[in-house]
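I am still getting used to C-alpha cells and would like to learn alongside you. Would you supply a protein for us yourself, any chain you care to pick? Start from the sequence, derive the C-alpha cells from it, and show both lines together. Go ahead whenever you are ready, and we will take it from there.
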Amino acid sequence: MTHGSSALTHVWPDDHILEKIDHLCIPFLVVGTPLTAVMALRPSGPYHVMGGMTMLTLAAAFLRPVYRTLSFVAAGAVMFGYYYWIINVNLVAQVTLYVAGAVFFVRNGGHSRPMGLQDHHMLHYCVTAASLLHVAYIVRAVTLGSKVKGA
C-alpha cells in the first residue's frame, strides 16, 4: 500500500490528493513495523501505545515536511523504547534505514546527481530495503516465536 501510493504520486506528481494519500500511508510503516513484530512475538500485546502513535502520525501527515518527518521519527522512537523486547539486530537495521530515509527526505538534495542517485531516490531505496528486512524479521519471528529476540 505504501509503495503503491508513492508510485502513483510519482506518476502524477501534481495531484495533491495522491500526495496526501502518500503522506497518510507513511504511518502504516511507522506503526506497522512494531505492530507486526508484536503480533508475531506476543499476539496478546500490549497495543495501547500504538493507538496513540497511530493518531499522532496520522495527524502529522498534515504538517509541513520537516515537522511531519520529525513527528514520524519521534513516534517511531517512542515505540522503539516502549517495545524494547522486539528489538534485535534486524530491527535496528530497519530503523537505521528508515531514519536515513527521513534524512534524505528532509535534505531533498542531490538534484545535480545522476538519475537514481538523488536524495529522493535514496529515500525510496532505504524504505524498500527496510521493508525487505522486515519481511525477514516477521518470517523469523513466526518460525522461532519468542526466541527471535536473541538472534
Observations:
- The CA atoms of residues 97 and 126 lie 5 Å apart.
- DSSP finds six helices and no strands in the chain.
